[in-house]
Amino acid sequence: MTQVAPTSPIVTTSRFPDGPLPPRAGAGLKPEHIDAILADDYRIGFLEVHAENYMGDGGPAHRGLEAIRVKFPLSVHGVGLSIGSESGINPDHLERLARVVERYEPAMVSEHLAWSSHDAGYFNDLLPVPYNARTLDRVVAHIGQIQDRLKRPILLENPSTYVAFEQTTMSETDFIREIAQKSGCGLLLDINNVFVSATNHGWKPMHYLRDFPLELVEEIHLAGHAEDTDDEGDLLLIDAHDRPVSNEVWKLYEIVISQAGALPTLVEWDNDVPEWPVLRREARLADAILARLGPASLLGSRHAAE
Amino acid sequence: MPRSDAVTAGEQHDFGAALLDPDLPLPEGIVGPHGKKAEKRFAVYRNNVTVSLINALADIFPAVQRLVGEDFFRDMARLYIAKEPPGSAVIFEYGGGFAAFLQNFEPLSRYPYLADVARLEKAWLAAFHAADAAPLQPETLAVIPPNGLAEIRFTAHPAARILQSPFAAVSIFTASREQRPLDGIKPATHEDGLITRPFDAVEVRQLPPGAAKFLGALIAGDPLGEAAGHTMADHPGFDLPAAISAMLEAGVFSACSASQPNPEHTP
Best exposed site among A159, A218, A306, B22 by fewest CB in 10 Å? Predict the structure, then answer.
């Protein structure tokens, strides 16, 4: 008999199944849905959580997410890192995010092209940045800092916006493409945000999608929006996440999938959250489109092969 | 043309200030597309920030909201948010100064117990998110020889908290959270509350006289004999065996040690 080797500290003992987000529909996780999701015959492709809700040390919130994580792939979506902030990335918040990522080993980590914190405090909203060289350098540096700490690339999400800046010198798509090229991050394409921003700023959503670097997109978000009016009485869309995905957004989604292939697709519903079957119905609509159009897409099944 | 750094430095500071103060003008450089105005557009951000933070406070302080009524709560929360916006993106930590704000809020001066109800709600949420630990099992205590009991020191469970109130804050908190009327509660009655999370669910109990002092001393690291002695000097009727059995059932502690004093509490 050979000697028994001492236990190596290098051996990783993951508590959770490994693997990427599948190119299927996922849902934003709400604690009140956990039991229904676990009991459901329909198996959702993955779940996504807001990182900030799991930054506590322990307690029942973690029991719920652990129960989900042992059964499903998980995506961690930050809403509070304030990547566009003039005052820099808050190192404490980055550490909190790193702890969530280490704890749950998610298949994906994403954040927003936005800011939410300043010296005065945290505004709990995703606020816009002007698109110019100065903001670009700042955002690229911040993403680098995040990716260095997390030791993995993140995805950056395109915003929904209501105002423009005189200081803007670049298109949003050029700005995002250059950030991805310089920082090495991937992209999260929120198609509802595209539709909301296009309506609010008078762009054509199709022109935006034509200019967007679809080859860098690794995840899609879909959500519902509300209608309001701007100062001139014209339609102003609000990124409300409080209702089903609109028909226009489903049509754009079909176009993106037939172009880019099947991609992990999250349905978000954060306000006036319905019972699980209502959210499941939205997820199944996305699943049907992925199954119908994904295999025939121009970019093919690049993601399924990964 | 892009502006120089000197002009644009702090543009987010102005943006943020205008978010919280609707009387401030639009931040410089904020426009609508194609020469459109941006007043209503900027108001979307103002509304998002204010409404989302009011909703956050309503989630954190449901008992207070029920006691003052939803409309009053939302108007009051708006004032608090402008005065004390969150310091971090971890929203469940927001509202640390809300109890003090209520205490000094003139329209509520006839309801002085509200501040302690708010403190209980913050303690409840802190206990909900506190680190995990198994509560101390009665068997652990049972194996310690009787002559060693006086020297035992305890380690507080991360979720354990005590709130002493000159008001009936525990009864009012409990009635409000259970959506019961306050009938029969005398607000000016002193009450002590214990917040714990023994089986991964937060529990709030009212403590008998003396127990807050006793448990507070144990949480601070005093040995059992000393804590009991001081408590019984102040409260001659203090039922020590009942208090020990209740603290074990509530999960106030996660561990105990027979002899080593906690270095932090050794002079």
Answer: A306
| Largest interatomic CA distance in chain A | 85
Using CB atoms, which residue from B3, B32, B90 is nearest to A163? Answer: B32
Q: Which residues of A110-138 are buried (b: 16+ CB within 10 A; e: fewer)?
A: bbbbbbbbbeebbbbbbbbbbbbebbbeb
d(CA B166, nearest CA chain A) in Å: 30
Token pair belonging to B86:
């969150």
Q: Which residues of chain B have pLDDT under 50?
A: 1-9, 262, 265-267
* Most confident of the following: A25-34, A117-126, B19-28: A25-34
- The amino acid at residue B6 is A
Contact check, Cβ <8 Å, B130/A58: yes
The domains located in chain A, with CATH, are: 25-305 (3.20.20.150)
Token couple for A10: 């290098």
Q: Is the dihedral of CA A261, A290, A30, B98 positive or negative?
A: positive
The pLDDT assigned to A5 comes to 45
Spell out a b/e string for B147-161, using b for 16 or more CB atoms within 10 Å of the CB, else e.
Answer: eebebbbbbbbbbbb
Tens-place pLDDT, residues A179-217: 999 999 999 999 999 999 999 999 999 999 999 999 999
Average pLDDT, chain B: 92
Q: What is the ipTM of this complex?
A: 0.92
What span, in angstroms and rounded, lies between the C-alpha atoms of B185 and B52?
34
Pairing of β B191-196 and β A217-222: unpaired
Residue A81 near residue A143, CB atoms below 8 Å: no
CA A88 → CA A165, A179, B15, distances in Å? 20, 16, 16
A-contacting residues in B 201-240 (Cβ below 8 Å): 201
Q: Does B92 contact A119 at a Cβ distance shorter than 8 Å?
A: no
pLDDT for the residue A301: 52
Does residue A236 have a pLDDT over 60?
yes
B125, B196, B241, B245 from B204: Cα distances, Å: 11, 7, 21, 16
- Give pLDDT, residue B142: 86
CA distance A119 to chain B (A): 8
Whether the Cβ atoms of residue A249 and residue A195 lie closer than 8 Å to each other: yes
pLDDT of residue A11: 52
Phi then psi for B162, rounded to 5 degrees?
-125, 135
